[in-house]
Design a protein that fits this description.
The protein has 413 residues and is of the alpha+beta class. The protein has helices spanning 6-54, 143-216, 221-253, 265-275, 277-282, 302-319, 376-386; strands at residues 84-89, 95-97, 115-119, 122-131, 134-141, 261-264, 286-290, 297-300, 325-333, 336-343, 390-395, 401-408. The strands form 3 sheets. The protein has a 5-stranded antiparallel sheet, covered by helices on one side. Helix 4 packs across helix 6. The longest helix is centred in the middle third of the chain and has 74 residues, at 143-216. The chain starts with 5 loop residues before the first helix and ends in a 5-residue tail after the last strand.
């Protein structure tokens, strides 16, 4: 990835991470609020149940005036539980209670359903019932609920920074890993477009220059023939370039490669050599093919494999010098089938090996001008990957380049 695009990817990943962290923080707050609400409701229900049960442990009440402190018996199941506060509100408005019990506010004399009220600065759960002409009011401190809420909130506050930091860092890392291939694909697309524009500009410039000269003044027939020859060559070059670009674009956009079928490498190799016989003859090349007598069958698309062989033979014919050799060999060994194309050209320089399959990259040997647009081997590499093949590059016996591809052999049974 180019340096110019790295900050953009980092900024986008940070923005995505911040958005993800915000969403997680919102969900975390909602869940935390739900936990607090559920815990509060559950503990409050427990207090209400205890208050309800405590009415059965009240001292007996009769029609005689109550004397002495008024307080319920302790819960035998919770002898060390929170103490209960009790008030006996007599019919004449007198309130009887135990020593040390705070005064009951008048607005709670008639309380029936459990309510939460503040008495002397303490949050209490208060409930009342009729006892003949009198009323009994019981209360229990909400301190247990408050402490539980405080503990939950403290835990939430302690966990939140680590959780949100982990989410942010994880989102940044994942975002960059996800964005890197996308950005790389975008960069390759931009480079492809720029390279294609550059490659198309050259033949268009030649055609434009020659047509401009032809229209500028009258010329003799020989000049026009030479000019039209240049235009023809550049037009064909541009057509080949456009066809290769269209093929790569369609191949990249395809959801899946063509279906595989049994393919005899020897048959396809012979057919390719026959097609290039005229090309080899014009350059006085010795083009040969060696295939085993028995079929060498692989499972792949015949159309793709045929194009791959054509790419390799065409590439060898371009780089082999006049009077040189191009050899195509099909072999089978150890359960694998291989196709090898050797030429007597300048070979592959070490600095070109890493980029030999890059689109629009052309390796140029000493004293030689590269032909084509540098898309042939890129197409070949796409086919090899799509058909599950393996590349092998080296030096041919004649000193030129060797390109070899191998596949697993298909079973004929």
């Amino acid at each position: 990835m180019s340096v110019a695009h790295v900050p953009a990817v980092r900024r986008q990943s940070i923005r995505v991470a911040l958005a993800a962290t915000g969403v997680v923080a919102l969900v975390y707050l909602i869940v935390a609020g739900g936990v607090i609400a559920i815990a509060t409701a559950d503990l409050t229900d427990q207090i209400d149940q205890r208050l309800s049960d405590s009415f059965r442990r009240l001292p007996p009440l009769d029609d005689e005036p109550h004397e002495g402190p008024f307080e319920p018996e302790r819960d035998p199941d919770r002898p060390f539980g929170a103490p209960l506060l009790a008030w006996l509100v007599l019919s004449d408005g007198t309130v009887v209670t135990a020593d040390g019990t705070p005064e009951l506010p008048p607005d709670l004399y008639d309380v029936t359903a459990p309510v939460t009220a503040s008495i002397d600065g303490t949050q209490l759960r208060v409930v009342g019932r009729d006892a003949g002409a009198d009323r009994v009011v019981l209360a229990q401190s909400m301190e247990q609920v408050t402490e539980t809420q405080r503990t939950i909130v403290l835990g939430i506050l302690l966990i939140a920074p680590f959780l949100l930091a982990g989410v942010f860092l994880g989102a940044v890392i994942i975002g960059r890993r996800v964005a890197a291939p996308i950005e790389a694909a975008r960069r390759r697309q931009l480079e492809f477009t720029a390279d294609a524009s550059h490659e198309l500009r050259t033949p268009l410039s030649v055609i434009e220059a020659n047509t401009s000269l032809a229209l500028a003044q009258e010329r003799d027939a020989a000049w026009y023939r030479t000019t039209f020859g240049r235009v023809d060559r550049e037009s064909k070059r541009m057509r080949r370039l456009l066809e290769d670009m269209l093929w790569l674009a369609r191949f990249d956009a395809a959801a899946a490669p063509p279906p595989a079928e049994p393919v005899d490498l020897g048959v396809l190799a012979r057919q390719a050599v026959d097609r290039f016989a005229a090309v080899a003859e014009t350059r006085r090349l010795r083009l040969g093919v060696r295939v085993p007598e028995s079929p060498v069958v692989i499972s792949a698309s015949a159309e793709l494999v045929d194009r791959l062989i054509a790419v390799l033979v065409d590439n060898a014919c371009k780089y082999a010098p006049e009077g040189g050799t191009v050899d195509v060999t099909v072999a089978a060994e150890a359960g694998r089938a291989s196709l090898t194309v050797d030429d007597s050209g300048p070979g592959i320089a070490d600095e070109d090996r890493q980029r030999i399959f890059d689109r629009f990259h052309r390796a140029v040997g000493a004293g030689q001008e590269a032909g084509g647009a540098g898309l042939g081997l890129a197409i070949g590499d796409a086919i090899v990957r799509a058909t599950g093949g393996r590349w092998s590059m080296g030096r041919a016996p004649a000193g030129g380049a060797r390109f070899s591809v191998s596949w697993g052999r298909a079973s004929l049974g």
